[in-house]
Description:
Layout: H1 4-14, H2 20-33, H3 38-44, H4 52-56, H5 58-73, H6 79-104, H7 109-137, H8 141-168, E1 186-190, E2 200-204, E3 207-214, E4 217-222, E5 236-238, E6 241-243, E7 250-252, E8 258-260, E9 269-275, E10 278-283
Antiparallel strand pairs: 1-10, 2-3, 3-4, 4-9, 5-6, 6-7, 7-8, 9-10
Helix pairs in contact: 2-7, 5-6, 5-8, 6-7, 7-8
Amino acid sequence: MAPQPLEDLIEKLAGAVAIDTVAKPLAKKVASTVPHGPAKDALSGTWLGHPLHPLLTDLPIGCWTSAMALDLFGGRRGRPGAQFLVAAGILAVVPTAATGLSDWSDTLGEDRRLGFVHAVTNTVAVGLYALSWRARHRGEHAKGVVLGLVGGTVATASAYVGGHLAWRRGVNVDRHAFQHHEDGWIDVGSYSDLEDGRPVATSVGDDDVLIVRLGNEVFAVSDVCGHAGGPLHEGTVEGRCVTCPWHGSVFSLDDGHVVHGPATGPQPGYDVRVIEGRVAVRHR
Length: 284
């Protein structure tokens, strides 16, 4: 369990509505700069099937941690390598920050405030490492080491906030990860009640299921968007796809695969059968 003062600090930051005065317009600006489309898909990790930002964070962290090890134990022979690693970490921040900002622009409320704190502390850490590199470049090795150690401390604090967002608050964690799906066929209603092209939702075990009739075909996928929990039945159906009303992720009704992000994982799909006018679904 984390120390209580640390827990209290996180809670205070999450509840600090004053942060919204800066975070809210900034998030809107980021969202307008990276609208839904290929760029958003690329930054979200839709093409990878996994959020991209957590993967990229290993690059600056790895570079700076290795630089710290050389500073402490590499002696004079380790100085060039440490300086190179400090610079490499700074360069690696560019794609890491871009993916993080894209993900952050989809958050709200307490998550957005903590994400803003995470971004600000990371910016401070990068600034310290930039000063560290400049000092090393000028031959002021001791000063560069101290600045690097301080930068590493700030980056660690930022990483704690990022970890809290992911593992305690579940930001960008697939909403279907812990769902239990019923076995066998489950009756979900009358075929005659389904209007062509109008999405409806029904409960099947732990899952809310989206039912859509298109012509003579009936489709069923999870109604809960895996990206942030948006209700797909409140979205729009075009062709054989449904668009989430919250962040614009597009899913195929045929099998639930992601057509466009920011979602990265498919919607759980259901087989559908119609017998004697009754619709039944079964988790695949």
